[in-house]
Amino acid sequence: MASPGSSGTTGTNPLAGPDPVIIRDLNILDRVPVVLNHLTSTYYAWKMYFSLVFREYNLQDHIDGSVDSWFMEDDEEWMTIDATLIRWFYTTISKDLFHPVVSAEDDAHAVWTKLNGLFTDNALQRKVFLHGEFFGCQQHDSLVDDYCMRLKKLVDELRDLGEKVSDELLLSTLMAGLNDDFENAASNIRLITAPTFPKVVAYLKLEERRMRMSRTRATHTALIAGTHGGVPPTAPAPQPRPGPGPFQAPPPHGFPYPQQ
After folding, report:
1. For residues 110 and 108, what is the distance between their CA atoms, to the nearest angstrom?
2. CA nearest 154: which of 173, 179, 180, 176?
3. Residues of the chain with CATH 1.10.1200
4. How many CB atoms lie within 10 A of CB 54?
5. What does each C-alpha distance from 72 to 2, 76, 78, 86, 259 come to in angstroms?
6. Helix (H, G, I), strand (E, B), or coil: what is residue 122?
7. Choices 2.40.70, 1.10.1200, 1.10.1740, 3.30.70: CATH for 123-224
8. Dihedral sign, CA of 160, 161, 166, 169?
């Protein structure tokens, strides 16, 4: 039996729903390569990956609340797919999230709503925390890519809470947190035409590569100089100082030494 509102994905029937066998055998870890965890900034990526899977396999009616699973209990195919989605959710979350949301009576929509609520409830407190982390983010000794991605994850988390961070504010915060090695690079960013976050990240990664190569060349040059031409000459070995001549006893009082 086809589920209400489903578009065709199997056979030639335009009203047919997704094939339960295809959904059941899908390796969700290949499609959602992140684990949802309170300790890491993975919520935005986790939600985005799942949203793509829902769209690709026409599964929105299982998670958007448009279909009540109570009315679908006699539809074996629909219930099979719903159970598969629940298994996907439990497979892609950390152990500390499993116990707060697990319930034998929940359908896929209920589990999806619970998991999203864990990251969007208490929005005001979470916004305050994320704002402090965002504006205090510093590169320190981390690589440019790690630093920039850390900022981007914070922006994504704020967006999930309805707080949009403008590109101008993101770029300003990024430049303010760069370490001293990128002082000149930060000034040059202002010369980029229509700067965007991807453009600036690409430029900083190239600059980081250039500085790394420059340091390597300087070290190599110093080693060559020290090996071939930069070693100070060896001091000559000290020569023995001449000792006193043969001992001569003093002449008797009043008599000079004989002339040689």
Report:
1. 5
2. 173
3. 123-224
4. 17
5. 10, 8, 7, 16, 139
6. coil
7. 1.10.1200
8. negative
Task: Note the pLDDT tens digit of each residue in 192-224.
Answer: 888 899 999 999 999 999 998 988 877 777 777
Q: Which two tokens stand for residue 218?
A: 């300087």
Contact 53, 100 (CB under 8 A): no
The answer to pTM > 0.85 is no
Amino acid at 40: T
d(CA 17, CA 8): 6
**Average pLDDT, stretch 247-251?**
51
CA distances to 72, 114, 160, 177, 237 from 86, rounded to whole Å, are 16, 12, 22, 41, 85
Where residue 30 falls among pLDDT bands split at 50, 70, 90?
Answer: very high
Neighbour-count burial of 212, counting CB atoms closer than 10 A to its CB (0-12 exposed, 13-18 middle, 19+ buried) = exposed
Please write the tens of the pLDDT for every residue from 54-86. 999 999 999 999 998 888 999 999 999 999 999
User: Per this entry, what is the length of the chain?
Assistant: 260
C-alpha span between 115 and 90 (Å, rounded):
10
Contacts of 52 (CB under 8 A, 6+ apart): 31
Sign of torsion over alpha carbons 110, 115, 121, 123: negative
